[in-house]
Amino acid sequence: MxxxxxxxxxxxxxxxFLGYALITRVPGLLHTPLMSLTxxxxxxxxVGALILAGSGERTFATVLGAIAVFASTTNIVSxxxxxxxxxxxxxxxxxxxxxxxxxx
Amino acid sequence: MSGxxxxxxxxxxxxxxxxxxxxxSHPTTARRGxxxxxxxxxxxxxxTLVHFEIVDYRSIAVAIVAxxxxxxxxxxxxxxxxxxxxxxLSHAFGALAATLxxxxxxxxxxxRISSTTMIALxxxxxxxxxxxxxSLIAAGKLQGIVRDRPWVFRGQNVVNLSVLGIAxxxxxxxxxxxxxxxxxxxxxxxxxxxxxxxxxxxGGADMPTVISLLNGFAGLSASMMGFVLDSNLLIVxxxxxxxxxxxxxxxxxxxxxxxxxxxxLGGFGVxxxxxxxxxxxxxxxxxxxxxxxxxxxxxxxxxxPGYGMAAAQAQHKxxxxxxxxxxxxxxxxxxxxxxxxxxPGHMNVLLAEANVPYDQLYDLDxxxxxxxxxxxxxVVGANDVVNPAAETDPAxxxxxxxxxxxxxxxxxxVVKRSMRSGFAGVENELFFLAKTQMLFGDAKAVIxxxxxxxxxxxxxxxxx
Lengths: 104, 464
What we know:
The structure holds two protein chains of two kinds. Chain A contains four helices and no strands. The longest helix of chain A has 31 residues, at 59-89. Chain A is flat. In chain A, helix 3 (46-54) runs antiparallel to helix 4 (59-89). Chain A is 72% helix and 0% strand. By secondary structure, chain A is an all-alpha fold. Helix content of chain B is 59%, strand content 7%. In chain B, strand 4 (376-380), helix 17 (389-392) and strand 5 form a beta-alpha-beta unit. By secondary structure, chain B is an alpha/beta fold. Chain B has three domains: 1-77; 82-267, no CATH class; 288-456, Rossmann fold (3-Layer(aba) Sandwich). Chain B has a six-stranded parallel beta sheet with strand order 3-2-1-4-5-6. Chains A and B meet through helix 1, helix 2, helix 3 and helix 4 of A and helix 1, helix 2, helix 3, helix 4 and helix 8 of B.
């Protein structure tokens, strides 16, 4: 246990610094999509909720797990959808003749 | 088989999440980032579903179907003007999931919970619970269900910190003895209450900071859940989300020259609002026709949008105006202050929705040098972010806040509903300058009139 705790703390520390480095590179232009994307990503807590809901151990655990699966799924689906919807709207004035225009 | 495949799938998923954020750093690669994030999520969920501990899929299936049924409309149908409240709501959902898993874990394993696990579990439910209620209040304020003005009472800080203190003391007792009766429900109750108390005192203009902070709390809660469940993937994803929220709140605080403590503990501006001077000073008022003349005669125009543009849903009319001016050979730029609006990046998304190309949007550092060469600045529903008192008046509550220095331009037109002061409750000297003209009315309506007036004017032949 103490072994995995130490590993966990190391991973937490490194991921936090990595997150800091990555996020500071995101321009203010994209801060709203950034927030909805990280929100969808952190709904990865669905992993814990799935195991809980499917464990079949006790009824209350199944119920709480299922509500958590519901909440996480909502965040995953709506988070990715709305982020992509927002990003689709961002376009340059001139497509700059690049191979992938993507704008409408 | 699943013994080796699952950790591998989780590892790849974590890598996808990192790449997803990496690619979000530029608009041209950002959509690839979303796809990569989706791939990672799919992989992690699929790997978990074939996990051997899962024996019963019925409740999972129901929950996923219900989640998709709610998630699709929330993702596809919510208008861009409602994005701040949708975001706050999604923080509440994320935190709810983490809290419920924490509650179940506690009652499944109590009292045989090691002290380290109990610390992580305690933090998970404290951060999760306060984010649930805090975000719901924030969403309610943004949607207009809950009163937007800060709710302040005497001794508020003492009450708030005591409630948080109670939650943490009971977490401490649980760490010493996970069997302590009633301690766990009390931790949750106190944290839920603290979330409410934390956000009811926050006014609209401080929402960007608070939403970012709640984002960070939701992420940290998920990360703590990773410690409880021994899942490195959760630790990584939660830490990424947590640092994102914290970075954004730091950016927001810096843009207002305020500290976290000042945002969370200081009832901002309300007192000054009541004590504000009642002297009526003359302003120069202007009508849409005169504004059209002024803009038409300009060579360079900078538009400064604020929350008023979002509230009036005027972004499409603003875009029409910008188009009409460009056709007439006027150089149009948009100046975006980091805290304009109700969440980070709010103005950018609204203008992108109205089809304004993002290379016309300039942030604070890139536009401030241009104001001295600007003929006309058009301020649409912004107030505190253009208030010169931030630079000149040490007694002002917004002193030190970096502002858009629109006063350097040759002429300024301010579109505003009335002479009411901004969120900070301070008068704006900008409105009383000799070169400032006030265009009163609903932003959507008056800018529409300016566009109409402009279309009646003959197009100047460009001087070659």
